[in-house]
């Protein structure tokens, strides 16, 4: 169940209330009986695992390491060997 933050418009009293999505919003301040307003804040989101940040696949000196370099190294090796095969094929 989510927690909602409320603040009173008259006395400034602030509090949190745990409510279901289907519950109606609170309208009366428990301290003074004044009108409440719901407060909205930032949501804390955490991304776990690799690949979410630009620096995850980079070494300390700025060069690629890990799986990213293995993939790029394999593609450059295969493309250079293919060009060698293509160049030697017409000669035979």
From TrEMBL:
Any Pfam family hit: Zn_ribbon_8
Domain of life of the source: Bacteria
Putative regulatory protein FmdB zinc ribbon domain segment(s): 1-41
Membrane spanning stretches: none
Compositionally biased spans, kind Low complexity: 58-92
InterPro entries registered for this protein in UniProt: Regulatory_FmdB_Zinc_ribbon
Residues covered by region (Disordered): 54-92
UniProt xrefs under PANTHER family: CONSERVED SERINE RICH PROTEIN, REGULATORY PROTEIN, FMDB FAMILY
Protein name: Zinc ribbon domain-containing protein
